[in-house]
Design goal:
Strands 1, 2, 3, 4, 5, 6, 7, 8, 9, 10, 11, 12 and 13 form a 13-stranded mixed beta sheet that branches. It is rod-shaped, with a radius of gyration of 57 Å. Helix 2 packs across helix 5. By secondary structure, it is α+β, with helices and mostly antiparallel strands. It is 40% helix and 23% strand. Keywords: Membrane, Transmembrane, Transmembrane helix.
Length: 371
């Protein structure tokens, strides 16, 4: 090898050593800056993590690479959010001074006793190896500091998050304790038996008259009741006697089909006694009371109202609250059915009596001269 080639090689080695020193100085300044600024320290750790992740994902497919990068960025974002909520991060571990670990090279203008050039010749690569060792240990220390910093932040964050949970738990216990008397009151109200009804209620299906706080079951009359436009029905026999003590009755209808078929209106019609019958065969013949009753078209309107807590019942009351039925016989008309009852007392209402006249052209009715 000629002296020219040797000189060029020595100059190249000197330039390389100079670059290594410059790199080391830059890294040392960065370390000093990062030590004084926690945010820069975190950014250095983030950059190192990104670089290491990129190295590990060289052989991975693009999808996994992007997913891993997004995951890392999300974690970095979370650490930044936690750091903003804290007063300050814990003090970092002491970082070895890079300048103390660097080889003490002579100035470029000086020449060693054996080399004849400005820098010692790194023939065996020992200085370069020491430089890379320092850089590696620096990166490891930075990584350890970042990890410790992240763990400390997470621990503080968990402690901070636990305080609201404990507070909420205490409030829940307080609310539960406060709500206990209300729950006891509600349970007492549920266990309390319902108040008794304001009027007696039947236990068997049927139609009942309600008067003087007592129930009287009505008797069903045979046949269908006549249309309201028909003055007098066909004659019929009365069933057994059903007497009410006064003329201000109400009625309770207790039927299975009431839940789906409730009446809105009903009426009470007068049942008149045929006192006498006049015909060509007999004049003024007195008829048997058992066969001489008819329903007349004189009526009293009633309204229906539901019975609380009893969907199969409804109550009938007069549209006129002051109505007082005169003593006599009556029929409660519920659509196609009629129920018989009577009001006790001396009969003075002329509508309760009727006379029948039978001639060849038909049958006619007229009012009684005397009830």
């Amino acid at each position: 090898m000629s002296s020219q080639e040797l000189r060029e090689r020595e100059e190249e080695d000197a330039n390389q050593a100079s670059n290594e020193v410059q790199f080391a100085l830059v890294i040392a300044r960065i370390i000093e800056t990062v030590k004084a600024d926690p945010e820069l320290m975190r950014q250095a750790v983030y950059d190192l993590a990104r670089h290491k992740l990129q190295e590990q994902l060289v052989d991975s497919n693009p999808t996994d690479t992007q997913r891993a990068k997004r995951t890392l960025e999300t974690a970095i974002h979370g650490v930044e959010e936690l750091s903003r909520q804290q007063v300050g991060p814990p003090a970092p571990s002491p970082v070895p001074q890079l300048s103390s670990a660097l080889p003490r090279n002579p100035p470029l203008g000086e020449t060693g006793p054996e080399s004849g050039v400005g820098l010692s010749h790194p023939a065996n690569g020992a200085d370069r190896h020491r430089l890379w060792t320092v850089m590696t240990w620096t990166a490891v220390v930075l990584l350890i500091v970042g990890t410790v910093f992240t763990v400390a932040l997470q621990r503080e964050s968990l402690r901070t998050l636990g305080q609201p949970l404990q507070s909420q738990g205490g409030q829940a216990v307080t609310h539960k304790a406060v709500g206990t008397p209300a729950s006891a009151t509600a349970n007492t109200a549920l266990n309390r038996s319902p108040p008794p009804p304001s009027f007696p209620r039947p236990t068997d299906y049927g139609v009942y008259a309600l008067g003087d706080d007592s129930l009287t079951e009505l008797r069903l009359l045979p046949g269908r009741p006549p249309d309201a436009r028909v003055a007098v029905s066909a004659a019929f026999r009365l069933p057994g006697k059903v007497s009410l003590p006064n003329g201000h009755p109400e009625f309770i209808v207790f039927r299975r089909e009431t839940t789906t078929n409730i009446l809105e209106h009903a009426e009470v019609r007068v049942i008149a006694r045929i006192a006498r019958e006049f015909s060509a065969e007999s004049a003024g013949k007195r008829l048997d009371d058992n066969d001489s009753w008819v329903i007349r078209n004189f009526s009293y309107p009633y309204r229906a109202s539901p019975v609380p807590d009893s969907p199969e019942m409804y109550r009938l009351h007069s549209e006129d609250p002051t109505l007082q039925l005169p003593p006599g016989q009556y029929a409660l008309i519920l659509k196609s059915q009629s129920y018989y009852f009577s009001v006790e007392g001396a009969i003075v209402d002329p509508r309760q009596c009727i006379e029948r006249v039978i001639i060849t052209s038909g049958t006619f009715y007229s009012a009684c001269k005397k009830p």
